[in-house]
Each structure stands twice: as structure tokens, then as C-alpha cells.
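Worked example 2:
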Amino acid sequence: MTELTKVVLDESDIPTHWYNIVADFPTPPPPALNPATREPLQPDDLAAIFPMGLIEQEASAERWIEIPDAVREVYRLWRPSPLYRARRLEKALGTPARIYYKYEGASPVGSHKTNSAIPQAYYNAQAGRRRLTTETGAGQWGSALAFAAETFGMKCDVFQVRSTYEGKPYRRMLMQTFGASVTPSPSDTTEAGRALQARFPDTPGSLGMAISEAIEEAVKDPEASYSLGSVLNHVALHQTVIGQEALKQLDAFGERLPDHLFACAGGGSNLAGICFPFLRENIVNGAGVQVTACEPAAAPSLTQGEYRYDHGDVSGMTPLLKMYTLGADFVPSPVHAGGLRYHGMAPLVSHAYHEGLISAVALGQVEAFRAGVLFSRTEGIVPASESNHAIAGALRQAEKAKETGSDEVILIGVSGSGQLDLPAYADYLAGTMEDA
């Protein structure tokens, strides 16, 4: 009983500031552009859909941005989140590597998404907005924003990608339990939705489509704001509480910085949240943490996309973002990891990848779920479908360590719980899962 299994920090250790990697990038990231003028985006260009508090964060180059007390107070419901040593997984693998995982599944909705939903709802409430519109893929973000909107007394309307609206009914029920209205996308309720249905008959939907509908709803309602669950700078910023805590927790274990860090990547907020504080150690202090973005083979934006300006949605309603993209029209296969089915990668993550600060690997969902089942059976936690990709990437590295006898340190970002993803696990266990 002398060896620690987990480290849970005190509530006083909840970070007081978000970390903004823009201040430490060796080269500045390209700006977002106004699609009409192709000039750098100005604050007024976003005023119709975002409150000024978030717009300022989106454009900020300050290294540390203070977290409001009201946000930290809600964070106390689940933060700090635990860091575990995966001793049983290590034993099952027979690897000399020391494996740790930062677990974000203890939040009210079972994922990391609440880290940004709470501040987004807070800043909108401060600006007098009474309604939030958004998209959701697997349902984690929609659930998080539904909870956050209710916390700050606002209405929440969620457009859920049709394939997961139908395939993950419990996510929809969770959003509705928190008070949100949920609509399958593309829908008949917006002009964008009707146009998309005509353009893509019988489509399973995509995050890019759902974004178009949510933005349209926000623009036509002066009391509404649009909230995005990933991709944008301020969302990545909010998630950095994950990595900041993990740094303290590894120290509490008496451990050195990890040799390898693996996190799943769809839009990029989870990856950014855990890895940006470690990239700061690399950039500022010369550390050698090797960060790997684990993306789905069904939507491999980093490994197969182009680095160029593109819209974040199918209808072209968003600003132009410099990112690795498969094209705004790209509709991924309806894989179980709905939260990773996005055509582009966050501009800040894309910039880090373009500058060689991180690497990436694309994994099929069969390998991902094989890793998730082993993790469940050894660690007792059923990971989210998305998180399984990070675990699969880490297991590859653990096998290499076994072959070489290396006692390297591996850190995994486990972004959420898979308790509502059990039909996906059933698909894998039955042998009916397609290796998309």
C-alpha cells in the first residue's frame, strides 16, 4: 500500500489562470480571416455570435488569463480531476513503461467539455445573453453546455449530428435532463438545414452541418449567442486546466515529465488542454515531451488534410481558419467516436503540428476499441469512444518500450467516460464493428 495509485489535488490547487500558448509559440499563428474581405478578423466581426469577454480571449496573446471566481466555484464540482498510475494495465502489457492517465470523466456530464462550457456560459450571462445555441457530435459538448446554461439561467438549443442523435439516445436524454432542446441535424427547422438535406440526401450529418444550423439560429436572435465546443482559441484556452493539474500531479507522484503524451484529437480542444502546458515546458524550459495527436482514420485531418484556410462549417458561415482540413464538405463515416468526426483541426493545434511541435497518428476504430476494452478490464474505467484512440496510441508505445526494455513515462489524456457508449462496445464485442 506504499505505492500511489492516484493523486487528487486539493480544491485550492484548481488553476487560477488559463494558459495561452500563443504567448510562447516560436512563430505567431496565422490570424483568422473575415471571409468577405479576407482581412484579419476584427472583434466586431464576431460580436453577433460571441460576447466580448470570449472575443477578447480569442484574440489574446497574453500568457495567463485569470479564471473568474464564479467559474472556479463551479469547477469545484469536479476539479481537480484525478491522475492515475495505470499499474494493472502495465502488468497486463508486461511493459517496463510507467503509464499514467488524466481522467476527465468525473465531471457532471462525464467529459472534459464542461471545462469550457462553464466559462462560455458565464461570459454570455455577464453580457446579458439569454439563450445559447450549439452543435454536438457524440453529445458530450451538448451535455456540457446544457448543464452550463442551466447553471447560469439560460436556455440551450442543441443541434446534434443525426447519426449520433439516433445512435446515442442516452446522450440526447442527458441533454434534455439538463433542460436543453435537442434537434437532429441537418433539420427542417433552419434554412441551412433544409439546404443541406437537399444537397446531401440521406446524410448521417456532420459537425460542420450542425455548426451551420446553430450559427444561423444565433444570428437571427439578438438575445442568443453561439457556443463552440472545440477548435477556437478560447476553447483550447479553457481546457488548459487539464495539463496544468497534470504537471502538479506528476510531481506529487515523484515522477519526471512524461517522455510521451497521447490524447485524442477531433476538433482539438482535449488535445490542446492536456498538451499545451507540457509544450510550454518544451518551448520555454527545453523539456522533451513527445506529444502525439491520436485521430480517427475516418477523419484524419492532421495526417491527410491540407494546411490552408477553410470554413469551420459546411455552409460557410464561420470565419476562415488556417488549419489542417479535409474540406468543409467532407462528411466522415458514422463511426462511434462521434466527437472526433470533424473535417478540420483547431488552428492552434494545427500551427503546433505545422511547426513540428507535435506529431499525429490515425487509428481505426477496431484497434481503438480493442484498447478501450483492455483498459476497462484492467483499470475499471470504461473510456469514451474518443478516448480509446489515445489509449490505442499509448499501447503502441508501451509495446515498443517492452521490446526495448525502456522504462519511459507515458501520459494519456482520457477525455471522458464511456458509460453512455456501451452500444458501441457491444458492437465491438459482437465482432460487427467496421474498421473505419
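DSSP finds 18 helices and 15 strands in the chain. The mean pLDDT is 95.
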